[in-house]
Amino acid sequence: MPGKNSAVNDLLSVRQGELPVMKPCVQGMCMVPVSGIAGNLWQQHITAVTALPPDAAVTTGPLPLPELLLPALPRRRGVSRRMVFWRYAGLLGGIFLALAMLASWMNNQRLIRNVGDHLALYHQLTGKPVAPKLRAQQRLRADGTLLDDWARRGEPLCYRLGLYQGLRLVPPVEAAVSDWAPPPPPPPVIKKIIQCPKTLRLDSMSLFDSGKSALKAGATRMLVNSLVGIKAKPGWLIVVSGHTDNTGNPKLNQTLSLKRAEAVRNWMRDTGDVPESCFAVQGYGESRPIATNDTPDGRALNRRVEISLVPQANACQIPGKTPASSQDDGASQHNGE
């Protein structure tokens, strides 16, 4: 048996090229007559002991196969290198698919948990105060918009592989968003009414003769009654502007309107002891009508002198007086007769 081990088992335990290592599962021995070398020591020993001559017959046939052991041998097909490659490729593909499905499942569970937390927080808030409830609703609106976009365009790859759970989250999100609305804001409270600057509108025909820029003799009384509310105030500029209708030359009308405005300014400066730095004089001529020039009444309205108070920080700086607020001024209109 030691000879068999060295001759057979040791030979099979070493890989031979593409032939893998083979481990015998069953071993058997078959005793058959074979011819030996003539005059070998074993034959001489047998002859000396038995006094029988050795068998000189030579066996030329093949040795018999161990037919009794063949049915007990395991049967399997051989494995080529290509089959080994495809086995490993299939194994790696299966592992990759399993990992991808695991990642998709984890992402879907995270999506369900996040949306569920947003829904739970939204339902816990009562709406008093409004800001936390409104922020929670806006967060749910963002979730709903994202889920709707995925429903139209398709969910990201990390949620796919048949495990996407976003569709069943859309109905509860839409129901939660639509079941509450913030109360309307309270109406604004008017804390301070700022009135427009005072504007006086004087009829030019009551102050001046036609085509003239000098004040009439009887215009003083009307000016006193009309300009009683116009006072010099630091930070306010008194703007005197003259206007005419479209009768005559436009350039002459503009010059006439400017001279009439200067005449009113000079009377206010001299009578009311108002510094000239409090005034600004402008002549617009026929460029700013307030009525149509196609009728006599409209042209009469357009022939006017307007006096306005306009806020200006560095205007009318009178020593000892501080700038006046606009809330101290009203708005009025006077049409002379």
Automatic annotation (TrEMBL):
Transmembrane domains' residue ranges: 85-106
Keywords: Membrane, Transmembrane, Transmembrane helix
Pfam families: OmpA
Subcellular location field: Cell outer membrane
Span of domain OmpA-like: 195-313
Biased composition (Polar residues): 323-337
Gene Ontology CC: one annotated term: cell outer membrane
Region listing for Disordered, in residue ranges: 314-337
InterPro entries, per the entry: Bact_OuterMem_StrucFunc, OMP_bac, OmpA-like, OmpA-like_sf
Source domain of life: Bacteria
The name this protein goes by in its record: Outer membrane protein
Native species: Salmonella enterica subsp. arizonae
Gene from which this protein is expressed: yiaD_2
